[in-house]
């Protein structure tokens, strides 16, 4: 019995390399502002989902209490994370302004 019987073809490696190169190209095209906007939109969507599930529960529709709590906690945590990121960005900006050239 040979220990190294399975040797993958080179085609697999070329596919992985092309995927990796494509992802690098996409990353270079997306700026910081666009990434920040996308993440803030996701936070907003979570807030809206939480609000909708809560309203549906209050109306008496078929929504479980634990689903309402989960959506509310997800929205709360995503908002807290966004606030903390904003705070760190503000601290970094202020520190850059304090630097002497």
TrEMBL record:
Keywords: Bacterial flagellum, Cell projection, Cilium, Flagellum. It is found in: Bacterial flagellum basal body. Its main location: other. InterPro entries: FliE. GO terms for biological process: bacterial-type flagellum-dependent cell motility. GO terms for molecular function: cytoskeletal motor activity; structural molecule activity. GO terms for cellular component: bacterial-type flagellum basal body. It holds the Pfam family FliE. NCBIfam families: fliE. Belongs to the FliE family. PANTHER family: FLAGELLAR HOOK-BASAL BODY COMPLEX PROTEIN FLIE, PTHR34653. This is Flagellar hook-basal body complex protein FliE. It comes from Clostridium botulinum D str. 1873. The gene is fliE.
């Amino acid at each position: 019995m040979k220990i190294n019987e399975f040797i993958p073809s080179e085609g697999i490696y070329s596919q992985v390399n092309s995927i990796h190169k494509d992802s690098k190209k996409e990353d270079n095209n997306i700026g910081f502002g666009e990434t920040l906007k996308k993440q803030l939109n996701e936070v907003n969507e979570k807030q809206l989902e939480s609000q909708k599930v809560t309203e549906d529960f209050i109306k008496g529709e078929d929504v479980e209490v634990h689903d309402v709590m989960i959506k509310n906690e997800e929205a709360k945590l995503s908002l807290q994370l966004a606030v903390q990121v904003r705070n760190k960005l503000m601290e970094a900006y202020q520190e850059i302004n304090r630097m002497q050239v």
